Amino acid sequence: MKSIVALVAAAVLSSTAMAASTTEKLPSGVIVEHLTQGTGAQPAADDVVKVNYRGTLADGTEFDSSAKHGGPATFPLNRVIPCWTQGVQKMKVGGKAKLTCPAATAYGERGVGAIPPNSDLTFEVELVGIVK
């Protein structure tokens, strides 16, 4: 009997975990994979957001993170790369998502610092809050 209960519990947890992760592909090619659904407000492009993040190149090399800078970063959502402006607007406070950014929505042909030109980027983002 215990094994049946364990199997049912595992199935419920598995289906809940699957339901929590949804993926959206935006017209620009940005992919937003919701890892944890937030329950708070959803930011607009002209909002200032507070986030924890980790950015990696296509090969998995980390090029930046909020942890490297001492904790959550705060910035106007309309003053960052288009991938962030578009992707973070799809999140709700308390949510976590993986943003897959085609080069054209990131730094494009110019590259920046450790990011080579024409690089697709991935960001793990936690939306901590919207600053009013």
From TrEMBL:
Domain PPIase FKBP-type: 46-131
Catalyzed reactions per annotation: [protein]-peptidylproline (omega=180) = [protein]-peptidylproline (omega=0)
Highest taxon of the lineage: Bacteria
One Pfam family here: FKBP_C
GO molecular function: peptidyl-prolyl cis-trans isomerase activity
Family listed: Belongs to the FKBP-type PPIase family.
Identification of the protein by name: Peptidyl-prolyl cis-trans isomerase
Role summary: PPIases accelerate the folding of proteins.
EC number: 5.2.1.8
Keywords: Isomerase, Rotamase, Signal
Signal peptide: 1-19
Family annotation (PROSITE patterns): FKBP_PPIASE
Top EC class for this record: isomerase
Keyword Signal: yes
